[in-house]
Amino acid sequence: MTFEEIYAVVRRIPQGTVATYGQIAGLAGIPRQARRIGYALSALEGQAELTVPWHRVINAKGTISRRSTPGFEALQRLLLENEGVSFDAAGRIDLARFLWRPSVDRSTRRRQSIKVR
DNA sequence: CCGGTGACGCGCG
DNA sequence: GCGCGCGCCACCG
């Protein structure tokens, strides 16, 4: 599993939604290895940084993860709010409302119960 | 080889 | 809800 493959999954996250590190790991074929997603994203730079929506990846608690270098958390929050993702008083995102539900193929979609608000 | 360190996650008390 | 411990794994000194 290369960084590029991980970035490919992150690029599928739609604007206005978020995904968790663990969720991305699963979709990328490396379940239970959420830490590697954070590692891959921390390595973002140059062109990739502009084409990978890294700000849409948050932790399972629905909050923005602490970074070694502070400041980026505020930026991430701004980028998310700019595309319609809202935070509660505790700085938490309502995952029931904003978590990305990737749709797969037609047959699978038929078995999924679509819940919209 | 060993231990410490992360943009993590989950179960338990 | 909040800590803690543990699992996980690439990297680094």
Helix content: 40-55%
Poorly predicted parts: 110-117
Query: What is the distance, rounded to the nearest whole angstrom, between the alpha carbons of the first and last residues?
Result: 35 Å
In terms of DSSP E residues, the strand content is under 5%
**Main beta sheet:** 2 strands, parallel
Instruction: Give the helices and strands as they follow along the chain.
Output: HEHHHEHHH
CATH fold call: Arc Repressor Mutant, subunit A
Sequence of strands across the biggest β-sheet: 1-2
Which value, in Å, is the CA radius of gyration? 14 Å
CATH superfamily: Winged helix-like DNA-binding domain superfamily/Winged helix DNA-binding domain
**Quaternary structure of the protein:** single chain
What form results from the Cα inertia axes? globular
In the CATH hierarchy, what is the class? Mainly Alpha
What is the correct CATH architecture? Orthogonal Bundle
Please work out how many helical segments DSSP would assign.
Answer: 7
Number of self-contained structural domains: 1
**Strand tally, please?**
2
